[in-house]
């Protein structure tokens, strides 16, 4: 059985809830200010660990109060923090989130995350069968170094290129599975995609990234579209009442990694991750809303006919 290694960001999410999002230049009255552990790397590691898979997080915290709080929370979720360093002179990364009608806007101030480097990812020892996961909230050279080490031992690499930014081909060539949403797909392929576009349009765009790797496009409530050897596989979304979608994509990535680490076939792993994300959106906060394996099993026992099969 493999393990999951996540090299990525650890943030304190400072969330302001309001009835609606302000327009540019506008002020609106909020309802509450909430503090949740977050960061794409930490969220993905918590998702995997809570599902019962040995999970190691590699990253940095500032030597400050948020850093202490985040470390305590992550340890409590069963994430191995041996390779999370406290960094003098840097603040823990903070995400300023506005949440209205279950949807968010996010501004991330990198702090210690921006200092993760090749030395940080050189320490953990990966092995064949492990899964190495990263996202774009730490510097890209560190991700490339991490994936090179993973590839060298035959571990599977998963990249979640979020938030979207241009990456060179050398980095993408180190990726076995790319997991991204419609906006990130549009950005990386230079195509103007919209939420309302058809799955065929997403498949077409994903083909540009699919040479030699699996591409999974998360489509929110519509589910996930995977392109495997250029063949589309659609896992439909589940009808749930979302209260906060923050971290749902991370839940999907962490759950997918966890299932691949224990050797599940891709179609089953996608259906599992999809079910996990449908639980996450029904709770407030990012890292604290990741489900347990029992919760995901309960949702999967209500699996609809056709899920996980070709469209
Ligand atoms: O993907 C959600 C995460 O993005 C939040 O937890 C926030 O920290 C930002 O990194």
Automatic annotation (TrEMBL):
Entry keywords, A to Z: ATP-binding, Carbohydrate metabolism, Cytoplasm, Kinase, Magnesium, Metal-binding, Nucleotide-binding, Potassium, Transferase
Chief location of this protein within or outside the cell: cytoplasm
Record flagged with keyword Nucleotidyltransferase: no
Residues that coordinate or bind K(+): 244, 246, 280, 283, 285, 289
Identification of the protein by name: Ribokinase
Gene assigned in the entry: rbsK
Gene Ontology CC annotation, any one: cytosol
Entries under Pfam families matching the protein: PfkB
GO biological process, one term: D-ribose catabolic process
Cofactor: how bound: Requires a divalent cation, most likely magnesium in vivo, as an electrophilic catalyst to aid phosphoryl group transfer. It is the chelate of the metal and the nucleotide that is the actual substrate.
Residues that hold ATP according to the record: 181, 218-223, 249-250, 274
GO MF, any single term: metal ion binding
Source taxonomy: Bacteria, Pseudomonadati, Pseudomonadota, Alphaproteobacteria, Hyphomicrobiales
Activity regulation details: Activated by a monovalent cation that binds near, but not in, the active site. The most likely occupant of the site in vivo is potassium. Ion binding induces a conformational change that may alter substrate affinity.
Pathway(s) this gene product operates in, as recorded in its UniProt entry: Carbohydrate metabolism; D-ribose degradation; D-ribose 5-phosphate from beta-D-ribopyranose: step 2/2
EC id: 2.7.1.15
Catalytic activity: D-ribose + ATP = D-ribose 5-phosphate + ADP + H(+)
Record localization: Cytoplasm
Sequence positions that bind substrate: 11-13, 39-43, 137, 250
Span of domain Carbohydrate kinase PfkB: 3-292
């Amino acid at each position: 059985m493999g393990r999951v290694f996540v090299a990525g960001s650890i943030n304190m999410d400072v969330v302001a809830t309001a009835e609606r999002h302000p327009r540019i230049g506008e002020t609106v009255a909020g309802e509450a200010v909430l503090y949740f552990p977050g960061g794409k790397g930490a969220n993905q590691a918590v998702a995997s660990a809570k599902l019962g898979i040995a999970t190691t997080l590699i990253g940095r915290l500032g030597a400050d109060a948020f850093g202490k709080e985040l470390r305590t929370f992550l340890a409590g979720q069963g994430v191995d923090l041996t390779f999370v360093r406290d960094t003098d002179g840097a603040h823990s990364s903070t995400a300023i989130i506005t949440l209205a009608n279950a949807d968010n806007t996010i501004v991330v101030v990198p702090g210690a995350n921006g200092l993760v480097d090749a030395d940080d990812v050189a320490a953990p020892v990966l092995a064949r069968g492990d899964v190495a996961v990263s996202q774009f909230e730490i510097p890209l050279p560190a991700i490339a170094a991490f994936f090179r080490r993973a590839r060298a031992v035959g571990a599977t690499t998963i990249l979640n290129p979020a938030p979207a930014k241009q990456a060179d081909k050398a980095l993408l060539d180190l990726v076995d599975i790319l997991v991204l949403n419609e906006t990130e797909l549009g950005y990386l392929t230079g195509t103007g995609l919209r939420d309302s576009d058809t799955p065929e349009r997403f498949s077409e765009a994903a083909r540009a990234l699919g040479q030699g790797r699996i591409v999974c496009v998360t489509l929110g409530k519509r589910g996930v579209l995977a392109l495997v050897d250029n063949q589309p596989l659609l896992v439909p979304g589940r009808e749930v009442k979302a209260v906060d979608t923050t971290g749902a994509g991370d839940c999907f990535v962490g759950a997918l990694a966890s299932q691949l680490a224990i050797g599940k076939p891709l179609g089953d792993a996608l259906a599992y991750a999809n079910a996990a994300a449908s639980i996450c959106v029904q709770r407030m906060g990012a890292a604290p809303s990741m489900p347990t394996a029992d919760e995901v099993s309960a949702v999967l026992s209500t699996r609809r006919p056709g899920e996980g099969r070709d469209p």
